[in-house]
Design goal:
Structural class: mainly alpha
Radius of gyration: 16 Å
Largest sheet: none
Distance between the termini: 31 Å
Order of helices and strands: HHHHHHH
């Protein structure tokens, strides 16, 4: 869950905070029948809210973004930059599909949408990534 949140938010500390909040929320929901699916959906939802709030904060702040601490190769930097340009739902769909290897139905459940929407999200994310990588 932390990896999913990290890919969506782009921040390990924020991801850890979001996941902790979601797990705490699950403790107060004894009626949840499928906790893993509920957790995924809640993590994606809270990460999307976090990203929106962060964008709003950046609009009103003039401080530059901190540089990553890990040294990456040029290909990894290009992919990371491409992922950072994606919308949070597109990033989440890519992560759920290719990192967690979830089916379209499971991704649809996590993103609270239909399987056809998942196909569309993945297609648009691929197109945006391809376009970004072709430019670099």
């Amino acid at each position: 869950m932390v990896r999913l949140a990290c890919v969506t938010t782009g921040s390990v500390p924020a991801a850890e905070d979001v996941v902790q909040e979601v797990f705490l929320a699950l403790l107060h929901r004894p009626d949840v029948r499928e906790p893993t699916a509920w957790l995924r959906r809640a993590v994606v939802s809270r990460c999307t809210s976090w990203v929106r709030r962060r964008r709003l904060e950046r609009r009103h702040a003039s401080q530059p973004e901190p540089e990553p601490l890990v040294a990456l190769g040029p290909d990894a930097i290009a992919v990371r930059a491409g992922l950072a340009r994606l919308r949070p739902r597109h990033r989440a769909a890519i992560f759920l599909r290719y990192y967690l290897d979830l089916s379209e139905a499971d991704i649809a459940d996590a993103l609270n949408c239909r399987p056809g929407t998942v196909k569309s999200l993945l297609h648009r994310a691929h197109s945006a990534l391809r376009e970004h990588l072709d430019d670099h």
